[in-house]
Specification:
Blueprint lengths: L1 E4 L5 E2 L11 E2 L6 E2 L1 E4 L6 E6 L21 E4 L1 E5 L6 E4 L6 E5 L6 E5 L4 E5 L10
Antiparallel strand pairs: 1-2, 1-8, 3-4, 5-6, 6-7, 9-10, 11-12
């Protein structure tokens, strides 16, 4: 994920993966966030927190539509780019077959569902960020 400093505008590609279970303490004992980053240019500490209660699945009926699948609380950071990688999971819409550890780095993925005897896949992954 590319992030932009809200103070000086510096863009960092450093944070490629945000894990839901990790939490870093905020300076001054103000709680914690999924990620805390200090800007290389202005030295300002900023944070982004994944609001886990907002995570929603993207289903077959959502195909070719934008859908909010997660919300972030951003303090001094703004997401500007997203590069999906490994760690995604899917389930066969008709069969319920689990497909784990899907890598979307190439924005496409395909496999074969033995239960339905059909090819399955995720194609042309796109994203957009919406400010609230």
């Amino acid at each position: 994920m590319g992030l932009k400093c809200g103070n000086c505008g510096e863009v960092s590609e450093k944070w490629q993966y945000l894990r839901l279970m990790d939490s870093a303490p905020l300076k001054g004992g103000r709680g914690s966030a999924t990620m805390v980053q200090k800007c290389k240019l202005c030295s300002r500490e900023s944070s982004i927190d994944i609001l886990s209660q907002t995570i929603k699945p993207y289903n077959a009926e959502d195909s070719e539509k934008f859908k909010t699948i997660v919300e972030f609380e951003c303090r001094g950071l703004e997401p500007v780019d997203f590069q999906p990688q490994a760690g995604f999971a899917a389930e066969g819409a008709e069969s319920g077959t689990p497909f784990n550890d899907i890598n979307l780095l190439e924005k496409d993925w395909n496999d074969y569902d033995e239960k339905t005897k059909e090819s399955v896949g995720i194609y042309e992954v796109t994203h957009k960020f919406v400010k609230c």
